[in-house]
Design a protein that fits this description.
Elements lengths: L1 H13 L1 H38 L18 H10 L1 H4 L3 H17 L1 E4 L6 H15 L12 E5 L3 E3 L4 E3 L1 E4 L4 E5 H9 L7 H17 L4 H19 L1 H10 L10 H14 L1 H7 L1 H11 L7
Parallel strand pairs: 1-2, 2-6
Antiparallel strand pairs: 3-4, 5-6
Helix pairs in contact: 2-9, 3-6, 5-6, 6-8, 8-9, 8-11, 9-13, 12-13
The structure holds zinc ion (ZN).
The site of zinc ion has 4 residues, from α8 and α11.
Length: 294
C-alpha cells in the first residue's frame, strides 16, 4: 500500500495542476448532474400539472437519442400483421420499430411445447407498442416475460383451461399462440387475446406509477372520467349493456370491462365512434390515439 500511495502523493505534489483539473471536471460533472435532475423534475412537475388541470396531452411523445431499426424479416411481420403500423407515416413507422426493438430486448419469451419464433415475438411486442404508441411510458414493467403455449393451457390460478392470463406476481403474460393468431386473423370480431391481456398489464403498471408518470395519469384519469360518465348516465349505461356491443365478459369486473372495452375499440373503432361517441372519445383520450383509422 505504502509504496503506491507514496508514489501517488509525490506524483500529485509534483502536478497540482492535474489535481486542480480533476477537481474542476468532477465539479462540472456533479453540477451538470444536479442541473439535469432539477430540470427534469421541473419539466415533469409542469407536464403533470398540465395533464391534471389543462389538457390530457404530453409535452412530447417520441424523442430518441439513438433510434434503432428492425431487420427486414421483422419489418415484414409488421407489414403482414399490424394494420396500425401500415397506416403510419415513414417517420412514425421508424418510432414504432424502435419501440418494438426495445420491447423485444426487455421481454423474455418462453415456449411451452412450442418453439418461439421471431415472428411470434415481433407480433406480441408490436401489440404492446400499438396500445401504448400514443403515450410516452411504453416500457410496461409489469411484464418481464411472455409464456407461450400452442393452444389453451391449464391455469394453476383457478384450475381451468385458459386462453390467456396476466400474472402480476410473476410479471408474466401467458398466451395460447393459436388464440393470439386468431385475434389477428379476424380483425373486426372484437376479440384479440394479446390486446386483452396486455391491457390488464398496462392498467396494473399505470396504477403503480400513477404518481410520477404523466402517461399513466392520462390513461387513468380518462378511465375514471369514463366510469363517472357511465355512472351518471343510466340511459347510456343501459344502451351499452342492451346493445351487446361489448361481449358479456366485460361486465365481470372493472378490469375485464377495461380490457374488453379496449379490445373493441382497437378492432371496431368506426362502429364504436358511431354508436357510442362519448365512450369512444374517452378511450381515444386514454390511449392518446390520434392516428389514422381512429
Ligand atoms: Zn381479462
Amino acid at each position: 500500500m505504502t509504496k503506491t500511495l507514496m508514489f501517488l502523493c509525490q506524483h500529485q505534489e509534483e502536478n497540482p495542476e492535474v489535481v486542480r483539473l480533476v477537481i474542476i471536471i468532477a465539479a462540472i460533472l456533479l453540477g451538470g448532474f444536479f442541473v439535469y435532475l432539477g430540470v427534469t423534475r421541473i419539466f415533469y412537475f409542469f407536464e403533470m400539472a398540465y395533464v391534471e388541470y389543462i389538457k390530457k396531452s404530453l409535452f412530447y411523445n417520441h424523442l430518441y437519442f439513438k433510434k434503432r431499426s428492425l431487420t427486414i424479416a421483422q419489418t415484414d411481420v409488421l407489414i403482414e400483421y399490424i394494420k396500425f403500423y401500415n397506416r403510419l407515416s415513414p417517420r412514425y413507422k421508424s418510432y414504432f420499430e424502435h419501440r418494438v426493438l426495445q420491447i423485444l430486448n426487455r421481454i423474455e419469451f418462453i415456449g411451452k411445447d412450442i418453439t418461439v419464433t421471431e415472428e411470434m415475438k415481433t407480433i406480441i411486442a408490436a401489440t404492446l407498442v400499438k396500445l401504448t404508441f400514443g403515450l410516452r411510458d411504453y416500457k410496461i414493467k409489469s411484464v418481464e416475460r411472455v409464456i407461450l403455449y400452442p393452444d389453451e393451457f391449464y391455469s394453476q390460478t383457478n384450475k381451468t383451461l385458459h386462453k390467456g392470463e396476466f400474472n402480476l406476481g410473476y410479471k408474466a403474460l401467458v398466451l395460447s399462440w393459436k388464440d393470439v393468431l386468431h385475434g389477428y386473423a379476424i380483425a373486426d370480431d372484437n376479440l384479440n387475446l394479446a390486446v386483452h391481456e396486455f391491457t390488464h398489464a398496462i392498467h396494473f403498471y399505470y396504477m403503480q406509477v400513477r404518481r410520477y408518470s404523466t402517461s399513466a395519469a392520462i390513461f387513468l384519469n380518462s378511465y375514471v372520467e369514463l366510469i363517472n360518465k357511465l355512472d351518471a348516465d343510466d340511459a347510456l349505461k343501459t344502451k351499452l349493456i342492451r346493445s351487446k356491443f361489448l361481449r358479456d365478459y366485460a361486465y365481470t369486473n372493472q378490469y375485464e370491462f377495461l380490457s374488453v372495452l379496449i379490445e373493441t375499440f382497437i378492432e371496431s373503432p368506426m362502429e364504436f365512434k358511431e354508436y357510442f361517441p362519448g365512450i369512444y372519445g374517452k378511450i381515444k383520450s386514454m390511449l392518446g390515439f390520434n392516428f389514422e383509422g381512429y
